[in-house]
Amino acid sequence: MKKILFLTFIMISLNLFAGYKDIPVTRDLDLNAEYDTYQDWLEDHPQQQTHSSEVNRMLSNQRDEGFLIIVNDDLYENIESSIQTYQEDLANEGFDSFVLEFDGTSHFDLKVQIIVYNQTENVTNVVLIGDLPVPWFELFEDFNNNGIQDDDEAWVEFPCDLYYTDIDGSWEDNDNNGIYDYHEGDKHPEIGIGRIVANNMNMLSETESELITNYFQKNHLYRTGIITSHETSLAYIDDDWSYWGSEYQQAMQLAYPSVELVNDDEETIASDYRDNRLIADYEFIQVHVHSGPNAHYFYYNDGNNYELVNNYEIEGINPTAHFYNLFCCSNSRYTTVNNMGGMYLYGSDHGLATIGSTKTGSMLGFSDFYQPFSEDLTIGESLRLWWEANVDTGPDWRW
Fold first, then answer.
1. Does this model's pTM top 0.85?
2. Which of 112, 146, 172, 289 shows a CA-CA span of 20 to 30 A to 122?
3. Which secondary structure element, helix H or strand E, spans residue 123, and what is its range?
Protein backbone atom coordinates (compact mmCIF):
# COMPACT_ATOMS: atom_id res chain seq x y z
CA MET A 1 0.00 0.00 0.00
CA LYS A 2 1.36 3.39 -0.96
CA LYS A 3 1.80 5.81 1.92
CA ILE A 4 0.35 9.27 1.48
CA LEU A 5 1.39 12.65 2.65
CA PHE A 6 -1.64 14.83 2.09
CA LEU A 7 -0.63 16.35 -1.19
CA THR A 8 -3.62 18.37 -2.23
CA PHE A 9 -2.88 21.52 -4.22
CA ILE A 10 0.80 21.91 -4.70
CA MET A 11 2.21 24.36 -7.19
CA ILE A 12 4.64 21.98 -8.80
CA SER A 13 7.62 22.60 -10.98
CA LEU A 14 8.25 21.39 -14.49
CA ASN A 15 11.31 19.46 -15.58
CA LEU A 16 12.62 20.34 -19.03
CA PHE A 17 15.56 18.54 -20.54
CA ALA A 18 16.79 19.43 -24.03
CA GLY A 19 14.71 16.64 -25.53
CA TYR A 20 11.51 18.10 -24.07
CA LYS A 21 11.70 21.50 -25.72
CA ASP A 22 9.19 20.51 -28.39
CA ILE A 23 6.60 19.25 -25.91
CA PRO A 24 3.57 21.59 -25.90
CA VAL A 25 2.86 23.39 -22.65
CA THR A 26 -0.53 22.67 -21.16
CA ARG A 27 -2.58 25.87 -21.34
CA ASP A 28 -6.02 27.28 -20.61
CA LEU A 29 -7.85 27.32 -23.96
CA ASP A 30 -10.35 29.88 -22.70
CA LEU A 31 -8.70 33.06 -23.99
CA ASN A 32 -11.05 35.18 -21.89
CA ALA A 33 -10.34 33.40 -18.62
CA GLU A 34 -9.64 35.66 -15.66
CA TYR A 35 -7.60 34.25 -12.80
CA ASP A 36 -7.67 35.22 -9.16
CA THR A 37 -4.77 37.49 -8.22
CA TYR A 38 -2.63 38.45 -5.27
CA GLN A 39 -4.76 41.57 -4.85
CA ASP A 40 -7.87 39.39 -4.70
CA TRP A 41 -6.22 37.34 -1.98
CA LEU A 42 -5.31 40.48 -0.02
CA GLU A 43 -8.88 41.77 -0.19
CA ASP A 44 -10.14 38.48 1.24
CA HIS A 45 -7.39 38.37 3.88
CA PRO A 46 -6.91 41.74 5.60
CA GLN A 47 -3.62 41.84 7.46
CA GLN A 48 -3.73 40.07 10.82
CA GLN A 49 -1.04 39.70 13.44
CA THR A 50 0.43 36.22 13.80
CA HIS A 51 -0.50 34.01 16.73
CA SER A 52 0.60 30.39 16.84
CA SER A 53 0.95 27.67 19.43
CA GLU A 54 1.68 23.97 19.52
CA VAL A 55 -1.41 22.10 20.69
CA ASN A 56 -0.26 18.49 20.45
CA ARG A 57 2.67 16.26 19.65
CA MET A 58 2.82 12.50 19.22
CA LEU A 59 6.20 10.79 19.19
CA SER A 60 6.90 7.34 17.83
CA ASN A 61 10.70 7.59 18.11
CA GLN A 62 11.05 5.17 15.20
CA ARG A 63 12.12 7.43 12.31
CA ASP A 64 14.53 10.30 12.07
CA GLU A 65 11.89 12.49 10.43
CA GLY A 66 8.57 14.01 11.36
CA PHE A 67 5.42 15.80 10.24
CA LEU A 68 4.44 19.34 11.13
CA ILE A 69 0.66 19.76 10.86
CA ILE A 70 -0.29 23.45 10.75
CA VAL A 71 -4.01 24.12 11.15
CA ASN A 72 -5.98 27.33 10.78
CA ASP A 73 -6.87 28.46 14.30
CA ASP A 74 -10.59 28.92 13.58
CA LEU A 75 -10.83 25.46 12.02
CA TYR A 76 -8.93 23.36 14.53
CA GLU A 77 -11.66 22.90 17.14
CA ASN A 78 -14.04 21.46 14.54
CA ILE A 79 -11.57 18.88 13.19
CA GLU A 80 -9.50 18.12 16.31
CA SER A 81 -10.56 14.48 16.54
CA SER A 82 -9.73 13.94 12.86
CA ILE A 83 -6.27 15.42 13.38
CA GLN A 84 -5.71 13.12 16.35
CA THR A 85 -6.64 10.09 14.25
CA TYR A 86 -4.24 11.27 11.56
CA GLN A 87 -1.47 11.57 14.15
CA GLU A 88 -2.18 8.06 15.38
CA ASP A 89 -1.98 6.75 11.83
CA LEU A 90 1.34 8.53 11.33
CA ALA A 91 2.66 7.11 14.61
CA ASN A 92 1.70 3.60 13.50
CA GLU A 93 3.89 4.20 10.43
CA GLY A 94 6.77 5.40 12.60
CA PHE A 95 6.45 9.16 12.15
CA ASP A 96 6.57 11.81 14.86
CA SER A 97 3.99 14.57 14.44
CA PHE A 98 3.47 18.05 15.81
CA VAL A 99 0.25 20.07 15.56
CA LEU A 100 0.45 23.84 15.41
CA GLU A 101 -2.51 26.22 15.48
CA PHE A 102 -1.86 29.28 13.33
CA ASP A 103 -3.72 32.56 13.03
CA GLY A 104 -2.51 35.39 10.82
CA THR A 105 -1.76 36.36 7.24
CA SER A 106 2.06 36.39 7.12
CA HIS A 107 3.60 33.65 4.98
CA PHE A 108 6.99 34.76 6.33
CA ASP A 109 5.92 33.99 9.90
CA LEU A 110 4.53 30.63 8.84
CA LYS A 111 7.81 29.75 7.15
CA VAL A 112 9.71 30.68 10.31
CA GLN A 113 7.71 28.04 12.18
CA ILE A 114 8.54 25.46 9.51
CA ILE A 115 12.24 26.28 9.79
CA VAL A 116 12.16 26.07 13.60
CA TYR A 117 10.56 22.63 13.59
CA ASN A 118 12.87 21.44 10.84
CA GLN A 119 15.89 22.44 12.89
CA THR A 120 14.68 21.40 16.35
CA GLU A 121 12.43 18.39 15.66
CA ASN A 122 13.78 17.18 12.31
CA VAL A 123 10.47 17.82 10.59
CA THR A 124 10.76 16.99 6.88
CA ASN A 125 7.07 16.99 5.95
CA VAL A 126 4.56 19.81 6.38
CA VAL A 127 0.79 19.62 6.01
CA LEU A 128 -1.10 22.93 5.80
CA ILE A 129 -4.77 22.58 6.75
CA GLY A 130 -7.37 25.27 6.19
CA ASP A 131 -7.14 28.87 5.06
CA LEU A 132 -3.47 29.66 5.73
CA PRO A 133 -1.06 32.27 4.26
CA VAL A 134 -0.23 31.95 0.57
CA PRO A 135 3.13 33.06 -0.90
CA TRP A 136 2.87 34.41 -4.47
CA PHE A 137 5.42 34.56 -7.28
CA GLU A 138 5.42 36.45 -10.60
CA LEU A 139 7.30 35.95 -13.88
CA PHE A 140 6.85 35.98 -17.62
CA GLU A 141 6.69 32.57 -19.21
CA ASP A 142 9.84 32.49 -21.31
CA PHE A 143 9.07 29.19 -22.99
CA ASN A 144 11.49 29.75 -25.90
CA ASN A 145 14.24 30.74 -23.44
CA ASN A 146 15.28 33.91 -25.31
CA GLY A 147 15.15 36.16 -22.26
CA ILE A 148 12.55 38.43 -23.88
CA GLN A 149 8.84 38.56 -23.17
CA ASP A 150 7.31 37.76 -26.55
CA ASP A 151 3.73 38.57 -27.55
CA ASP A 152 2.47 35.10 -26.68
CA GLU A 153 4.32 34.91 -23.35
CA ALA A 154 2.16 36.16 -20.51
CA TRP A 155 3.21 37.83 -17.29
CA VAL A 156 1.70 35.68 -14.55
CA GLU A 157 1.35 35.65 -10.80
CA PHE A 158 0.48 32.50 -8.91
CA PRO A 159 0.51 30.78 -5.51
CA CYS A 160 3.93 29.26 -4.92
CA ASP A 161 4.35 26.78 -2.07
CA LEU A 162 7.90 26.05 -3.17
CA TYR A 163 8.63 29.04 -0.92
CA TYR A 164 7.84 26.91 2.12
CA THR A 165 9.80 23.87 0.97
CA ASP A 166 13.06 25.70 0.19
CA ILE A 167 14.21 26.90 3.59
CA ASP A 168 17.68 28.15 2.66
CA GLY A 169 17.25 29.72 -0.79
CA SER A 170 17.03 33.44 -1.52
CA TRP A 171 13.54 34.84 -2.15
CA GLU A 172 13.19 38.51 -3.06
CA ASP A 173 10.48 40.96 -4.12
CA ASN A 174 12.45 43.46 -6.18
CA ASP A 175 9.54 45.75 -7.07
CA ASN A 176 8.08 45.68 -3.54
CA ASN A 177 4.58 44.73 -4.65
CA GLY A 178 4.23 41.85 -2.19
CA ILE A 179 4.89 39.19 -4.84
CA TYR A 180 8.22 37.39 -5.08
CA ASP A 181 10.02 37.74 -8.41
CA TYR A 182 13.49 36.35 -7.63
CA HIS A 183 14.57 32.93 -6.39
CA GLU A 184 18.25 32.05 -6.34
CA GLY A 185 20.91 30.50 -4.12
CA ASP A 186 20.34 26.93 -2.98
CA LYS A 187 16.94 26.41 -4.58
CA HIS A 188 16.57 22.74 -3.72
CA PRO A 189 13.66 21.88 -1.41
CA GLU A 190 14.31 20.44 2.02
CA ILE A 191 10.66 19.94 2.96
CA GLY A 192 7.83 17.90 1.48
CA ILE A 193 4.61 19.89 1.62
CA GLY A 194 0.91 19.57 0.93
CA ARG A 195 -2.28 21.53 1.50
CA ILE A 196 -5.73 20.50 2.62
CA VAL A 197 -7.84 23.55 1.82
CA ALA A 198 -11.61 23.41 1.40
CA ASN A 199 -12.92 26.81 2.50
CA ASN A 200 -13.62 27.81 -1.13
CA MET A 201 -15.35 24.61 -2.27
CA ASN A 202 -18.81 26.16 -2.16
CA MET A 203 -20.13 24.04 -5.02
CA LEU A 204 -20.36 21.22 -2.49
CA SER A 205 -23.08 21.19 0.16
CA GLU A 206 -20.85 20.37 3.13
CA THR A 207 -19.10 22.95 5.27
CA GLU A 208 -15.31 23.34 5.26
CA SER A 209 -14.93 21.35 8.46
CA GLU A 210 -17.26 18.61 7.19
CA LEU A 211 -15.31 18.27 3.94
CA ILE A 212 -12.02 18.01 5.80
CA THR A 213 -13.45 15.57 8.35
CA ASN A 214 -14.73 13.39 5.50
CA TYR A 215 -11.32 13.61 3.87
CA PHE A 216 -9.48 12.42 6.97
CA GLN A 217 -11.95 9.58 7.35
CA LYS A 218 -11.14 8.39 3.82
CA ASN A 219 -7.46 8.71 4.58
CA HIS A 220 -7.75 6.66 7.76
CA LEU A 221 -9.66 3.90 6.00
CA TYR A 222 -7.03 3.76 3.27
CA ARG A 223 -4.09 3.74 5.68
CA THR A 224 -5.63 0.94 7.74
CA GLY A 225 -6.41 -1.17 4.69
CA ILE A 226 -10.19 -1.01 4.99
CA ILE A 227 -10.53 0.72 1.62
CA THR A 228 -9.60 -1.66 -1.19
CA SER A 229 -6.60 -0.55 -3.21
CA HIS A 230 -6.41 -1.32 -6.94
CA GLU A 231 -2.84 -1.84 -8.12
CA THR A 232 -3.63 -0.41 -11.54
CA SER A 233 -3.25 3.05 -13.01
CA LEU A 234 -4.24 5.05 -16.07
CA ALA A 235 -2.19 7.27 -18.38
CA TYR A 236 -4.78 9.32 -20.28
CA ILE A 237 -2.91 11.45 -22.82
CA ASP A 238 -4.78 13.94 -25.01
CA ASP A 239 -3.75 14.92 -28.55
CA ASP A 240 -0.89 17.36 -27.94
CA TRP A 241 1.12 14.80 -25.94
CA SER A 242 -0.04 11.50 -27.46
CA TYR A 243 3.32 11.02 -29.23
CA TRP A 244 5.06 10.65 -25.86
CA GLY A 245 2.41 8.40 -24.35
CA SER A 246 4.59 5.29 -24.18
CA GLU A 247 7.32 7.25 -22.42
CA TYR A 248 4.89 8.47 -19.78
CA GLN A 249 3.49 4.96 -19.38
CA GLN A 250 6.97 3.54 -18.81
CA ALA A 251 7.65 6.07 -16.06
CA MET A 252 4.40 5.17 -14.31
CA GLN A 253 5.28 1.48 -14.56
CA LEU A 254 8.07 2.09 -12.08
CA ALA A 255 5.34 2.33 -9.43
CA TYR A 256 2.45 0.47 -11.08
CA PRO A 257 3.29 -2.57 -13.25
CA SER A 258 -0.23 -2.39 -14.69
CA VAL A 259 -0.64 0.96 -16.47
CA GLU A 260 -3.35 1.33 -19.10
CA LEU A 261 -2.30 3.80 -21.79
CA VAL A 262 -5.00 5.69 -23.68
CA ASN A 263 -3.44 8.06 -26.22
CA ASP A 264 -5.36 7.63 -29.46
CA ASP A 265 -6.34 11.14 -30.53
CA GLU A 266 -9.92 10.20 -31.33
CA GLU A 267 -10.35 8.11 -28.18
CA THR A 268 -9.18 10.69 -25.64
CA ILE A 269 -12.38 12.72 -25.59
CA ALA A 270 -14.43 14.26 -22.81
CA SER A 271 -17.23 11.70 -22.91
CA ASP A 272 -14.82 8.76 -22.68
CA TYR A 273 -12.90 10.28 -19.79
CA ARG A 274 -16.10 11.27 -17.98
CA ASP A 275 -18.22 8.18 -18.58
CA ASN A 276 -15.67 5.36 -18.74
CA ARG A 277 -12.38 6.27 -17.09
CA LEU A 278 -13.28 8.19 -13.95
CA ILE A 279 -15.53 5.36 -12.74
CA ALA A 280 -13.11 2.51 -13.56
CA ASP A 281 -10.97 0.66 -11.01
CA TYR A 282 -7.75 2.67 -11.15
CA GLU A 283 -5.81 3.63 -8.05
CA PHE A 284 -3.83 6.36 -9.83
CA ILE A 285 -4.77 8.52 -12.84
CA GLN A 286 -2.32 10.68 -14.75
CA VAL A 287 -4.22 12.86 -17.22
CA HIS A 288 -2.65 15.16 -19.83
CA VAL A 289 -5.11 17.72 -21.18
CA HIS A 290 -5.32 21.46 -21.72
CA SER A 291 -7.21 22.88 -18.78
CA GLY A 292 -8.07 25.82 -16.60
CA PRO A 293 -8.69 25.90 -12.86
CA ASN A 294 -12.29 24.70 -13.31
CA ALA A 295 -12.33 22.46 -16.40
CA HIS A 296 -10.50 20.12 -18.78
CA TYR A 297 -10.55 20.82 -22.56
CA PHE A 298 -10.38 17.53 -24.50
CA TYR A 299 -9.71 17.81 -28.23
CA TYR A 300 -11.67 15.87 -30.85
CA ASN A 301 -12.09 15.99 -34.64
CA ASP A 302 -8.33 15.98 -35.26
CA GLY A 303 -7.82 18.74 -32.72
CA ASN A 304 -10.17 21.17 -34.45
CA ASN A 305 -12.71 21.18 -31.62
CA TYR A 306 -12.75 20.54 -27.91
CA GLU A 307 -15.29 19.50 -25.31
CA LEU A 308 -15.17 20.21 -21.59
CA VAL A 309 -15.24 18.15 -18.44
CA ASN A 310 -16.30 20.69 -15.83
CA ASN A 311 -15.79 20.96 -12.09
CA TYR A 312 -19.53 20.76 -11.42
CA GLU A 313 -19.66 17.30 -13.00
CA ILE A 314 -17.18 15.65 -10.64
CA GLU A 315 -19.43 15.16 -7.62
CA GLY A 316 -22.10 13.42 -9.69
CA ILE A 317 -19.52 11.14 -11.31
CA ASN A 318 -17.91 10.28 -7.94
CA PRO A 319 -14.53 9.19 -9.42
CA THR A 320 -13.04 6.05 -7.91
CA ALA A 321 -9.29 6.75 -8.14
CA HIS A 322 -7.37 7.68 -5.01
CA PHE A 323 -4.51 9.64 -6.59
CA TYR A 324 -4.19 12.05 -9.52
CA ASN A 325 -1.23 13.56 -11.34
CA LEU A 326 -2.87 16.47 -13.16
CA PHE A 327 -0.85 17.47 -16.22
CA CYS A 328 -3.50 20.15 -16.56
CA CYS A 329 -2.82 23.89 -16.63
CA SER A 330 -3.85 25.61 -13.37
CA ASN A 331 -6.04 22.69 -12.30
CA SER A 332 -4.62 22.83 -8.78
CA ARG A 333 -4.84 26.58 -8.29
CA TYR A 334 -6.14 26.10 -4.78
CA THR A 335 -6.95 29.81 -4.36
CA THR A 336 -9.59 29.51 -7.10
CA VAL A 337 -13.13 28.74 -6.00
CA ASN A 338 -14.16 25.14 -6.79
CA ASN A 339 -10.88 24.29 -8.53
CA MET A 340 -10.66 20.88 -10.19
CA GLY A 341 -7.90 19.63 -7.90
CA GLY A 342 -10.18 20.22 -4.95
CA MET A 343 -13.18 18.64 -6.64
CA TYR A 344 -11.24 15.42 -7.25
CA LEU A 345 -10.61 15.27 -3.49
CA TYR A 346 -13.72 16.62 -1.81
CA GLY A 347 -16.29 15.84 -4.50
CA SER A 348 -15.45 12.14 -4.46
CA ASP A 349 -15.75 9.37 -1.89
CA HIS A 350 -12.32 8.09 -2.91
CA GLY A 351 -9.93 10.95 -3.71
CA LEU A 352 -6.91 11.21 -1.41
CA ALA A 353 -4.22 13.26 -3.16
CA THR A 354 -3.67 15.33 -6.27
CA ILE A 355 -0.48 16.74 -7.73
CA GLY A 356 -0.86 19.72 -10.01
CA SER A 357 0.14 23.23 -10.93
CA THR A 358 -1.29 26.62 -9.99
CA LYS A 359 -0.19 28.09 -13.34
CA THR A 360 0.53 27.16 -16.95
CA GLY A 361 2.63 24.03 -17.22
CA SER A 362 2.97 20.83 -15.23
CA MET A 363 5.32 17.94 -14.47
CA LEU A 364 7.76 16.29 -16.87
CA GLY A 365 10.63 13.95 -16.04
CA PHE A 366 8.09 11.61 -14.49
CA SER A 367 10.55 8.86 -13.58
CA ASP A 368 12.08 11.20 -10.99
CA PHE A 369 8.73 11.06 -9.20
CA TYR A 370 7.56 7.50 -9.80
CA GLN A 371 10.86 5.86 -8.88
CA PRO A 372 10.84 7.05 -5.25
CA PHE A 373 7.08 6.54 -5.09
CA SER A 374 7.68 2.91 -6.06
CA GLU A 375 10.00 2.58 -3.06
CA ASP A 376 7.08 3.16 -0.68
CA LEU A 377 7.96 6.77 0.06
CA THR A 378 5.14 9.23 0.69
CA ILE A 379 3.79 11.21 -2.22
CA GLY A 380 5.14 14.34 -0.54
CA GLU A 381 8.67 12.97 -0.27
CA SER A 382 8.50 11.57 -3.81
CA LEU A 383 7.51 14.99 -5.12
CA ARG A 384 10.25 16.65 -3.08
CA LEU A 385 12.83 14.32 -4.64
CA TRP A 386 11.42 15.08 -8.09
CA TRP A 387 11.76 18.78 -7.33
CA GLU A 388 15.28 18.17 -6.04
CA ALA A 389 16.22 16.59 -9.36
CA ASN A 390 14.61 19.26 -11.54
CA VAL A 391 14.54 22.58 -9.74
CA ASP A 392 17.59 23.96 -11.55
CA THR A 393 15.71 24.18 -14.85
CA GLY A 394 14.03 27.47 -15.76
CA PRO A 395 11.10 28.59 -13.58
CA ASP A 396 8.77 29.11 -16.52
CA TRP A 397 9.02 25.37 -17.23
CA ARG A 398 9.44 23.90 -13.78
CA TRP A 399 6.64 25.86 -12.09
1. yes
2. 172
3. strand 123-129
